[in-house]
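Usage

Read records sequentially. Each one opens with the input sequence:
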Amino acid sequence: MRILVVGGGGREHALLWALRRDAPQATLFCLPGNPGTATLATNLPGTTTDVEAVTTTAADQSIDLVVVGPEAPLAAGLVDRLAKAGIPVFGPTAAAARIESSKAYAKDLMARHGIPTAASRTFTELDAALRFIGKHAEPLVVKASGLAAGKGALVCATRAEAAAAATAMLADRRFGEAGAEIVVEEFLEGEELSVMAMTDGEHFAVLPPAQDHKRLSDGDAGPNTGGMGAYSPVSLASSGLLAKVAEQVFTPTLKALRDDGAPYRGLLYAGLMLRPDGSIAVIEFNCRFGDPEAQAILPVLPGGVLPVLRLIAEGGWMPPAHRFGDARCVAVTTVLAAAGYPDAPQLGAEITIPAATESDRHVHVFHAGTALGADGVLRVAGGRVLAVTATAPTVAEAAAKSRAAAEGIRFEGKQYRRDIGWREIARRQ
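and closes with the structure output:
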């Protein structure tokens, strides 16, 4: 097979790693890729949201399967264009991808179909938003409705903070057009869980759940980010809980999208809150593999991702009872971020990765925001720079190994959390 992965981050590096594991003889490409993906695939030049150019490239390279990693090209209609050209592609159409590209649409969909989520209101006018916030219980959450690279959700302790957040989005255009519409919702107490399912639009297979760490600093302090680390599997995600997620979230959501004329094929990500009373609520939907969750989930799978990707991309129907094998180990992923991340990442610092880290078969260093400088030196080229995944029999061992590898990688201003998986470790102790 000739397979093209669209994207250039840590998630795409992890996807290529999984594809190479499943199909050692396949010819892999990545557009635009990064120095890490270049070790597994041929990087191709291009912009992921230029749907015409990507389609032309896929045709020129005689690609058998396209896997779209990021949300932006999905929202731009890349799947629609590739399908029109007769190229099998894994990912939802632009209409189905609205479940992530418009939080307002997702909230409306859930409200209309009784899918559990936080109570909310949507606004495009600042004055109306401020009046609503002024009467809302504290704390509360303000979200940019559009795509904001995982940084558009602000948890506000007070109404004053929420009013400032709404003003920054609607008046100051902090997130550009992504914040031209906002969602104001109640704050949910509990523990977060990321559950992803591969689906043909009706049947679905759930991947091992993961837990992301959104806050920048240890102890869940600091601003929200695109994700500072994750681990998988999660002991809270019992078979009973996953059955509840299937019944209350995935099944009605897929039906709702079909009823809306936007059948969903691809990877559907449900970010959930497990509430103290045992109920679940959807925090957000994503229309693609989570990042950094993919970097923790794919290494624990026993394999078998490629056949499902291909089946869905080619328009086939999954067996109703299909499931992936149980996780074969535990994985903990620690994200290394640039100085100044998330607000103003500083780029250009030289990166040094010890040879012993790169040769350790239980450690995977997935490149996210890296580039080779004109001098051939690996340098920081994005906010989240590397995702360091370690596998081990227990979460404590995997966390220690991931942390040690993260400590050994050098670049100026490096930021990372030293407590990834702390809830799971505490539970097991």
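Summary fields computed downstream for this record:
- The first strand starts at residue 2 and ends at 7.
- The chain has a mean pLDDT of 96.
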